[in-house]
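Entry 14. Structure prediction run on the chain below.
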Amino acid sequence: MALPDIVSRQQWVQARLRLLEEEKELTRRRDALNAERRRLPMVRVEKDYVFDGPDGQVTLADLFGDRLQLITWHIMFGPDWDAACPTCTNFMNELSPAALARLRDCQTAFALISRAPLDRIQAYQASKGWNLPWYSSYGSDFNYDFQVTLDQSRGQVSYNYRSEPGLLGDQQSTELPGASCFLRDHGETFHTYSAYARGLDHTDWPYALLDLTALGRQEAWEEPKGRAFVLHDAEPAEG
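Output returned:
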């Protein structure tokens, strides 16, 4: 493996201080970017989206509960799939009641949404021993409107705000990852933000921790080369 150079402690501190300046600049830029995200305008949700849940049918407004905001995580799980995608499964494994409680404390509800029918979702959830707020959008336009289901027959081939027919390959339709945020005000629901692909990298805490290490995420695209102990060949999607 191409491990880091070995240097004296003094040399290491000098190199670390140079990197620290870049990290501080990135932190300031991230704060500014987050402020720009909060300044985005919002769009009134006109459709009455209905989902199947463990207690029956619910609307998008119902998913807020008594909170002002809602984050919906689009889990890749198609109607004819036997399981959710492995990466989405890893993400759900990382969710905890404490994390969801912290969101609720900040006036934010959280829900997982997939196009798979509810019986498939519940069977998969039971097999993992999860107790997560997971709903089915099967039969609604929700996945199509928020561009996490590409479907040639419906003319919906946009992902991450651009046309991506190549992502379909030889399939008529496919599921893709994403997250969408909503806000409630005076009884109305507004769409405030959606992100896709690597635009969600920063929300995956194992990635964030691995980015601190010398070996990184163990993916072949990372620099410097030759650091991957457990090699994952997939190139990063543009985000």
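The longest strand covers residues 188-196.
Filed with the rest of this week's runs.
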